[in-house]
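Tokens for chain A. Residues wanted.
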């Protein structure tokens, strides 16, 4: 049966009153604001297919667009203003989902994800299928589950915020390359950057301690997956109420290559040159301002203050997702 907030509330009320049964009738169609990032890797080709898949799953989708001068979040806020919607569906990748966060926070509507981007890290972290029709069925039938947000200098994010190599990679990986090459684009850009990567000094201040490090990358994860195949920590979840932090303190570029299998599994903490810890708040300082990559986009600079926003949003996802 499709998820219906009104029907769920009626059932709960009847159960509390001791009713033995309740007839909720035929559930009405869900009504969703639908935003498709036409620039996402599969966005333009699947825009109409997305609406059809949602309709087949029992959801009426009303398309909205981010016109010139109007951001994705602003389009969501404007679209939701008349009322009558019970969810927002985003078709795109992690960058699009990140851009939608302010709109989702303001409207309070739960999020449905159609993974149409390059990496689709949040969808993988939540166990949402990448096949369009299957993802639409999740949005129609699963109850929304609470997920946390990370935040750095006031910028919220779903997956990971990174300083160092990953941020430099985000700066070099152009949108056209991601659209043309998909995940392979990450590897091509990374190979070109590896030999030029240099460690930098940073202070990590958390839980009453100050750690001074020489590192090539510091990553602060709220979710599980990032970067088109990497894993923050093997036990990380986007709803576990914790930030997973690691610092890659290697001094040779070839060690990064050797680390790749561990980074993919989230077991990099087994290396002596990798510092890992878990926290809910972190301050990070560098000698000079450095860009910060959040969910694949450069959004802030050091010095940085990280914090966790517990159960900040609701997302339609399988209950047994990662």
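Reply:
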């Amino acid at each position: 049966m499709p998820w219906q907030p009104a029907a769920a509330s009626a059932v709960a009320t009847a159960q509390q009153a001791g009713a033995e049964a309740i007839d909720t009738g035929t559930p009405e169609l869900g009504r969703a604001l639908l935003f498709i990032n036409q620039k996402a890797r599969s966005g333009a080709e699947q825009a109409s297919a997305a609406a059809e898949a949602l309709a087949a799953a029992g959801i009426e989708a009303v398309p909205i667009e981010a016109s010139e001068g109007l951001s994705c979040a602003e389009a969501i806020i404007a679209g939701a203003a008349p009322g009558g919607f019970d969810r927002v569906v985003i078709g795109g990748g992690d960058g699009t989902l990140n851009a939608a966060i302010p709109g989702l926070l303001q409207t309070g509507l739960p999020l449905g994800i159609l993974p149409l981007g390059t990496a689709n890290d949040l969808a993988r972290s939540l166990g949402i299928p990448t096949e369009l029709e299957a993802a639409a069925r999740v949005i129609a039938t699963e109850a929304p589950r609470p997920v946390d947000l990370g935040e750095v200098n006031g910028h919220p994010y779903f997956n990971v915020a990174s300083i160092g190599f990953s941020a430099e990679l985000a700066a070099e990986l152009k949108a056209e390359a991601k659209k043309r090459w998909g995940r392979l684009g990450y590897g091509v850009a990374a190979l070109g950057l590896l030999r030029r990567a240099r460690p930098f000094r940073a202070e990590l201040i958390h839980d009453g301690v100050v750690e001074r490090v020489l590192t090539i990358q510091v990553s602060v994860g709220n979710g599980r997956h990032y970067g088109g195949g990497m894993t923050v920590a093997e036990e990380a979840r986007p709803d576990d109420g914790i930030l997973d932090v690691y610092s890659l303190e290697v001094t040779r570029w070839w060690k990064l290559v050797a680390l790749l299998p561990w980074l993919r599994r989230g077991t990099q903490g087994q290396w002596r040159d990798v510092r890992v810890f878990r926290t809910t708040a972190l301050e990070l300082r560098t000698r000079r301002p450095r860009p910060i990559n959040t969910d694949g986009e450069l959004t802030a600079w050091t010095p940085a203050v990280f914090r966790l926003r517990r159960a900040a949003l609701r997302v339609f996802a399988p209950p047994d997702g990662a």
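The two ends are 23 Å apart (CA to CA). Confidence is low (pLDDT under 50) at residues 7-27.
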